[in-house]
Amino acid sequence: MDNNRKFTKLDRNMDVSEEEFRTLQELERNDDGFKDEENTKYKKAGSPIAPLGGGDALYFDYTDEYPAFEDVIAIQFQPAGKVYWYFYPEQKNPGNELKQGDIIVAYSERGMELAEVLNKSMEDYKRQNKINFIKNGFVRKAETADFEREKQLEIKAQSAKEVILRINKELGIKMKIIKVKYTLDDTKAIFYFSANGRVDFRELIKRLAYELKRRIEMRQIGVRDTTKIMGGLGPCGRTLCCRKHMHNFIPVSIKMAKDQNFSLNPNKISGICGRLFCCLGYENATYEELRKDYPQEETAILDRSSNRKGYVKKVNAIGQNITVFFPENAEKKEKAEEKIFPRSALEFNNGWFINLPQSESADHDLDNITPIVAKEKELLRESSNPENQEKPERPQQNPNNKKPAPKDSSNPNNPNAKRNQNWHGNRRNFKKFPPRKDGKDNQGGNQE
Predict the structure, then answer these.
(1) Cβ–Cβ < 8 Å for 258, 288
(2) Which of 6, 30, 16, 9 is nearest to 265 (CA)?
(3) DSSP one-letter string for 224-274
(4) Quick check: is 327 in a domain?
């Protein structure tokens, strides 16, 4: 590989420094904390969804028949939380109908909680395994007493947060308490926290259970789950996707940002959680489809017109062109340069070639062409129409206009006057010295 290349090797595939590359690798981490709300070690066919406090709710067994679409409901226990499928065939009976947005009381793997009914999707329903459906988990529709009880529990949760902060200070435990939640039956207190590494909180749980008189559950979460719980506004000015509509985190990578020609500056492609934008995955499938007919970055390519070998530096699938870097060749007196070639010039035959027609030429700066907006097109159309073009009128001379003063060196107020050697100082304060008696010019100033 040529040493004169100005971009990085194939293994990194990015034109960034080593420090930025390590930072980007840190942004790409997606597996810290728990990935969803479900405890997978309890998820077995026919087993209860929560051994402690889950009521009679069970996962479907293999002997059970696959439930019909009309007999199940899709619910979530927190905003944009994990979607659960509950078996509730009684909804077909009059008076038990459920629609999108209804609040119900159901058993989760944490205990009894309020849940929101979602709009069911047939495609999502078909993707579910039999074990993903839960039976005996529906309790009732939420009543006024349930909402009042939820408000009271939120006040108690705030008091429990103050208690754990005090105990952490006494024990010297370094953790950040994100949220405290009580189950609706007031039998369990759940503490969501974030910390660097593992935390030994055995003594903490003992003291919390003694003071709160309830079962204690500690859940360590990552930065993405922390942002999902707390919410906020993204750089786009709208509510965070993970808080509004993303029920599960989608995997994102640096390659997605590079394929979409984003700047690889870590500050510009990371969200408030400190990880890559989740929206990088929204259009990734489209870009992958568009880039099928293009060579990858760092691929060697030969320009047949100049017989020069270069390397693909950038692929612009939307603009339908590629940027090729040609290294310097001192023997042929060829300087290092970059050229942009259209998609029509690419050809693949056991390798990539540039077969540019004679009528076309490579553009060195295609990306800097400013597109013509609709208003500018209208103005250009009017200016190109000969009927709309009017001859310019010659300005009429005013007889009262005075002619410019002639060049008179004797008049110091005339700006067109030439510089006289007998005048000294600036134009605002001209001072003329009298001639000397010996007939010589007085150029040295007024000498006394």
Answers:
(1) no
(2) 16
(3) HHHHHHH--B-TTSSB-HHHHT-SSPPP--HHHHHHTT----TTTSB-TTS
(4) yes
Q: Taking Cα atoms as reference points, which of 317, 339, 335 lies closest to residue 327?
A: 335
Looking at 99, 123, 142, the residue that finishes a domain is 142
Q: Which residue has 């005090």 as its token pair?
A: 166
At residue 73, the pLDDT reads 93
Domain that holds residue 119: 40-142
Structure tokens belonging to residue 43: 């998820």
Q: Which residues, in sequence order, are CB contacts of 319 under 8 Å at separation 6+?
A: 366, 367
Number of domains in the chain: 4
Least confident of 211-215, 216-220, 331-335, 383-387: 383-387
- What's the CA gap between 38 and 188, in Å, rounded? 17
Q: Of 85, 95, 212, give the one whose Cα is nearest residue 158.
A: 212
Contacts of 77 (CB under 8 A, 6+ apart): 37, 84, 106, 108, 110, 113, 114, 115
Q: What whole-number distance in Å separates Cα of residue 10 and Cα of residue 100?
A: 50
Give me 20's structure tokens: 């930025």
- DSSP lists the bridge partners of residue 309 as 302
Three-class DSSP category at 115: strand
Angle at Cα 170 formed by Cα 164 and Cα 172, nearest 5°? 95
Residue 263 lies in a domain: yes
CATH number for the domain harbouring residue 163: 3.30.300
On whether the CB atoms of residues 103 and 121 are closer than 8 A, the answer is no
Contacts of 32 (CB under 8 A, 6+ apart): 222, 223, 224
Q: What is the pLDDT of residues 157-187, one digit of tens each?
A: 999 999 999 999 999 888 899 999 999 988 8
Length of the chain: 448
Q: What value does the CA radius of gyration of the chain take, rounded to a whole number of Å?
A: 38
Q: Which pTM value belongs to this model?
A: 0.65
